[in-house]
Amino acid sequence: MFATGIENSIPTINNGKTRVDEMESCGHYQRWREDFDCVQDIGINYLRYGPPIHKTYLGPGKYDWEFADITFAELKRRDIIPIVDLCHFGVPDWIGNFQNPDFPHLFAQYAAAFAERFPWVQLYTPVNEMFICAIFSAKYGWWNEQMKTDRGFVTALKHIVRANVLAMLEILKHRADAIFIQSESSEYFHADSPAAIHQAEVLNSRRFLSLDLNYGRRVDSEMYEYLMENGMTKDEYHFFLHNRLKQHCILGNDYYRTNEHRVFENGHTTASGEVFGYTEITRQYYNRYRLPIMHTETNLVEGPVGDEAVHWLWKEWANVLRLRNVGIPTVGFTWYSLTDQVDWDTALREQNGNVNALGLYDLDRNIRNVGRAYKRLIRDWREVLPASSLCLVVPIVPPSHYDMAHAREQEEQARRRLQTEEIDIGQTNSPQETT
């Protein structure tokens, strides 16, 4: 699955007073048709994309689907397969932030309404980068609740991951063969000295928390104590163990040069740059979860020479091929995002209006060098890869095939399989019942 994305990040800053809307900053609301043209010009069939939740979800049971209706109808017409990103770093004002205990069930209600309205959509990332969302919002103090405590982080994390799980349950009621592609940051922490080893080990355990909970995997003993000491109850922990939906998932992981960190004795961390690289870190995540892999985000700013991003694309693609060659099932690659982004250099925590040249296209929708390189890469490899991995086929139904007999049969088979799972999808409480 060769993919790109149109980012729908909407965190708040300034104690919730200011909304950072990347779709607005990058001109997507006005130029969405051009953006879809760009997707097709590159030769991309898969698009990480979703409606802006703060403009769509107006209150419990209240929605404004106007923009989603026109954009998703166009994606369907063009037969572009969306990987639907329903929550990207923020919530509507009326929900508040990720400390709100009602968020999981309210979000599940939103996911159910979306899945019912767009039944032809099969691929989802319900909540994007759950770990990053929780840590930036409630541990680093950058977004949304802007807290800097372990308790705030654990509270945000348990609400975010519970929301993701409940959303998956609701979506499966409407689309039994739905596939969930987590987009989660893949991290690693390097000890700067022997005195920093324990701190690095703690951080290297903490990086797995969101996926451990999401996939119903028992966390490490030290992390269990950490969760319990910071507000998670045993009942809340057991919810994740008893709602294991791993079998419906692809492990999507993101990798940038900032994903590896150097840890010092006093606990301070800095970005280390690329040390192990995508292949080695992804191997660690794969060995832990044993799921098919998709590289769901990467990019690099096009620098003064003009080929910096092109070289990074080549390097990341070489890492993806290495994973495949050593037997790790790898099903997709993503350059993120389609266009340049605004204020990515400050992680969206400041509004400086800085345009970061890391897209396949600039904000005037002129193709960049990395866009040309990605177009060639897709053309060269698209037919080669399926022929070399016939045993690894993701059962995806393109929008144009949704009403065909084989698609209906696939969904019916998936529905029968759901009935044999330990989780009875049809018997889970609806968001309305549990709110």
UniProtKB/TrEMBL annotation:
Residues 426-435 have a biased composition (Polar residues). Residues 408-420 have a biased composition (Basic and acidic residues). Residues 408-435 are annotated as: Disordered. It comes from the Bacteria. InterPro entries: GH, Glyco_hydro_1, Glycosyl_Hydrolase_39. Pfam families: Glyco_hydro_1. This is Family 1 glycosylhydrolase. It comes from Sphingomonas sediminicola.
